[in-house]
Amino acid sequence: MPEEGVQLTPKSELLTTQEIITLARLFVKEGVDKIRLTGGEPLIRPDVVDIVGELYKLEGLKTIAVTTNGINLTRLLPRLKEAGLNAINISLDTLVPAKFEFIVRRKGFHKVMEGIHKATELGYHPVKVNCVVMRGFNEDEVLDFVDFTKDLPLDVRFIEYMPFDGNKWNFKKMVSYKEMLDTIKQRWPELEKLPCETSSTAKSYKVPHFQGQISFITSMSEHFCGSCNRLRITADGNLKVCLFGNSEVSLRDHLRSGASEEELIQIIGAAVGRKKKQHAGMFNISRMKNRPMVLIGG
Prior knowledge:
Blueprint: H1 17-29, E1 34-37, H2 48-56, E2 63-68, H3 73-83, E3 87-91, H4 97-104, H5 109-121, E4 127-133, H6 142-147, E5 154-160, H7 177-187, E6 192-193, E7 202-206, E8 213-217, E9 232-233, E10 238-240, E11 249-250, H8 251-256, H9 261-273, H10 282-285
Parallel strand pairs: 1-2, 2-3, 3-4, 4-5, 5-8
Antiparallel strand pairs: 6-7, 7-8, 9-10, 10-11
Helix pairs in contact: 1-2, 2-3, 3-5
């Protein structure tokens, strides 16, 4: 979170509950079987439980997931689970409370940890924990995060530091997955590689006898664009076919101007058709204009 905070989008520009469900229904009808509610922070929406409940009614949708900062998770999770939520990612870049306050600009480390334990208690296996690794900030905690998977059914996902507007990206701050893997193997040489799905964005490993596992999201050092099947709709209704692409199509504006279902499908199809073979590479991305990650969501 930038020190000065971020300018909030006026409520009238955000998708309404009904618009979210309308678009979700359209995508599910076209074959999407997993929907993730992400950020900003999805759990601050007062209607988030209702949205999950409505998504759960969509025939053909197999997975409803959420990516959250974990602050409100303990309070909301029982209702979310009852509404149909079946997968959770929690963003946590440090296991040190003081560092946590520095990066998120607020207290709440204990609430996030409480949320992680609550999720495991309620049967979410694995609970995914997203950790962006930055040199000079938290790369010294990689082994502690692996150790975190010893007694809890977690999937700690180490994410390579990526360039976005406002995050003062610097190549020297990026810790590649191979460097992290080498560090981990020095401590746990018996680390095992796990099989993964074709469209997976993660390379997964496990220390034998640990309850959980670890994964690496290698979007910078080894992109997975060829197998990526993800689409993203921002809170204000823009379709992004690539997280690092700066071209966006406003589905909200088309919806509000009365576009038919067939027209929306054509607009979405055309945008997906323009999706590039791969992203521009980390050095080019760092010079491109794009939304800051805090306005896109994890």
